[in-house]
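ingest -> fold -> write
write: protein_1
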Amino acid sequence: MAVVEKIGYDLNSKTPKVMYKKDERGEIIKDEDGEPIIDTDIPNIAASFREFKKKYSLEF
């Protein structure tokens, strides 16, 4: 079972800020279009769940 650890936002304030992936030097990582990448593991969890459904032929 997967547990979401990162949702891409800092929820410790009244106005949550977007959290971006950073490299070992603390610099924001950008995608191929130059856009910063949000630090979330939700897409990976969703992809793993789709693979699980396919593996066991689940139809929901």
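write: protein_2
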Amino acid sequence: MDGISRGYNLYYRESDYEDSDISTYSTDAYGAGINFGYPINEITRLNFGTAVEDLTIKTYNDTASEIKRYVDEQGADAQALKLTASWTRNNLNRGIMPTDGSYQRLSLETAVPGSDAEYAKLRAQARQLFALDDNHDWALKFSGELGYADTLGGSDPYPFYENFYAGGLGSVRGFTGNTLGQPTTPSGNSTRDRTLGGNMLVQGSAELIFPTPFVGDQRTVQSSLFVDGGNTFLSDCYPVLDADATGQLRLGSRLRRPALQRRPGALLADPGRPADVQCRRAAQRRERRRYPVLPVLPRPDLLTGPRHPRYLAAAGGGPTGVYHHAKLTAAFALLLMSAIALPALAADVAVLDWRRALMETDVAQRSMSELENRVGSQQQQAQALEQELNQLQQRADSLSDSERQQANQKVAELNRLMGEVMQARQESEQALLQRAEPKLQQAVEQIIARHSIQVLVEPQGVLHAERDLQNVTAEVTEILNSML
């Protein structure tokens, strides 16, 4: 049957949840799995998978007392045999910025009996769009998501590291990502307002999509007004002193405008605001300035230069990225001809986000972790210098000559550290690209042969499609994991 897929994965993953604005702890996990995909029809698909995983929890002096209590009682190591299943129905009118149609997804993950933490995790997502005019410039969009998880019998608490999280882009906008839910109880010298998420999730939004002024092609830029609401909840509080449960719905608003933030193929801004003063202050406390951990990302200039003629990267104002199984240098012209004169059949056209496919491979994740380890000390020094310079800036008018000289020295030292971090990033990017680029070529060729694809385009290059195009990004990642 055409469209059946099978994939394998073998991974080792280090995760620092403080970097995601969750609580202060980290995990090391390694495991292996296999998954299968079965198409029911053109818009519906079933996926099944199984995996074994060994996870180790690491705590620190300022780790929340809920986590320390859990580790003391349940142990820092957990082995699990996981089974997953999902059903997806995608009937949106196009893959990028849809204005009509519907999308539903139902997924179940369970750690079967015999695992150290036995649980089941159910998640339901839905989107419905209604076009309000024939040109699809005006539309109503409603979306919602529900999640529930619990242990399978027994009196052990649900593993906190499998909780749901809410807040941020794609969730309740106007809040820092992953920060909604019951606050943790600080321990040690920590006074940070953190959350563990919850084993229950409720969130939804309503949007009015309207034409963007002064923009001719409304399919590449989308403006909307929206209201979001949602939170995470705990059915049973983790045992701590002075536990505090919260459950407020938060509201935000967003206007997508081309002048605010530029992204490939779409321009987006989220000036969301909490609904009340108390929530606003809590959100402002969470909005601290962080010195970023630099990911290993393929730069468009590296992939579009003369050393990589096979790739055309989609970027704002640049050419649309297209991959063709014959000669990629002619693919862009082929896509234009197809769109204008001889439109390709949907079965012959597929979508591939090759950057995401590459960055979700296990080797890319390891590369990111290795980079963070190499530049961690420089980042900490740079963060400390930045804080000192901010303090000096606040009293710039009263600085003495010697203090101004010290400030200039600190600026020079900050620039040096930033240069070292950027150089390490570029070296990691080059090494990853040199290793993965031939394999990426082979993986794409396999996908093209498997699905008889005539034209393969990046998501940013899809201006219009009568129905949702097949997305082969996950399949490319699976193939790359078996090659790298």
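write: annotation protein_2
The chain has two domains: 1-287, 289-484.
The chain has a mean pLDDT of 76.
pipeline exit 0
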